[in-house]
Amino acid sequence: MRTQVGIIGAGPAGLLLSHLLHLRGIDSVVLEIRSREYCEGRVRAGVLEQGTVDILTEAGVADRLHREGLVHHGIELRYGGKGHRIAFERLVPGRAITVYGQQEVVKDLFEARFAAGGTIHFEVPDVELHDIDTDHPSITFQGQRLECDFIAGCDGFHGVSRKSIPEGALTIYERTYPFAWLGVLAKVPPSTEELIYAYTEDGFALHSMRGPEISRLYLQVPPDASLDEWPDDRIWAELKRRLETIPDWELTTGPIIERGITPMRSFVAEPMRYGRLFLAGDAAHIVPPTGAKGLNLAAADVRMLAEAISHWYATGSDELLDRYSDACLKRIWRAQHFSWWMTTLLHTFDTDDAYGRRLQRSYLDYVTSSEAAATTLAENYVGVPFERFG
Length: 390
Ligand code: FAD
Ligand code: DHB
Prior knowledge:
Bound molecules: flavin-adenine dinucleotide, 3,4-dihydroxybenzoic acid
Largest sheet: 8 strands, mixed
Number of helices: 11
Helix content: 25-40%
Oligomer: single chain
């Protein structure tokens, strides 16, 4: 079996890369360890930057996104008994975010790939990479060999691609946090029009949504928390305690239809390339979800990877392939900092002393009263513009 680009992983990174390559006349095969149903049912991120919406729109996979996505021009920071709006329309005119579930993006991409005759093998448990430091790399799975010109490792943090790179060839930068997020999807109309990021002395909470009938909510929980300890009434009580902190505001409760616990980690592997293997998305980097950057970074990576690979086919030149890792890392490190900063600002740290809390309060007051500080938050949240590549 032969293809031009072998793609490991059918998450947002792998599927979007496959589609962007197809639009440039380049053939790919996607290998995914899970079933299509599992991939489509996996509830994760929900905030798309303007640039991500633009990539999906240009790729022709955003019709439903434009119909059903919720365009937001601000977020609320809630603390100290008050809500403070960060107004994108004033601070970063013309830029906004769109709230649209990652699983919907994945569904739209599957549909586009299959409509275009794309090849995706599901439930492939035994992917192995070979000869990645030569110009004839290959992938074996289920007794078959897929020969390719390039391999794209889009298989997330726990995937096989990054682990196939010899020890010592990558430098790892990492930080873990002393808490996790408990996330729920609830069949109840959102109690807010815009997202609320709430800081309390008892921990962080976030109110997001998926549409007029579905709310998405998150709670800071201990890093070793288990779902068994969090029955529905405890989840709602804790959400109310952390969100009902301003006068006359009430959180409407309802049936919880999905729940999960996400560990919090910052991680970067450099460079994002070894020979003919290119890493993209969570396979190369993870951010804590507070800044809503994970999915957006994955889209930015594959936008550049598709460009670099198509430049090679068009000209035979390695120039863009050689620049891929550095170009991605510049944006990634900005998002790393922003995500670490939002996380540090809004969460309660176990080890936090009174001094640490005073620092958080001081910075929250600064961000909600200074136009300059609010603009810093806003321009990072909506996503810094793409730099020219290619
Ligand atoms: P993934 O979406 O992880 O896709 C990788 C794909 O590769 C998966 O389909 C996986 O099944 C497949 N795969 C793995 N191993 C193999 C293998 N050996 N062989 C073949 N296929 C393989 N970001 C936010 O911004 N906000 C959030 O609220 C948020 N919540 C999250 C919750 C969880 C539980 C997780 C894990 C992540 C969350 N993220 C969030 C991050 C965001 O969802 C990711 O950044 C995004 O999914 C990255 O896309 P990706 O395609 O790089 O990786
Ligand atoms: C969502 C997730 C995030 O991590 C975030 O910062 C904002 C919203 C969400 O799932 O809607």
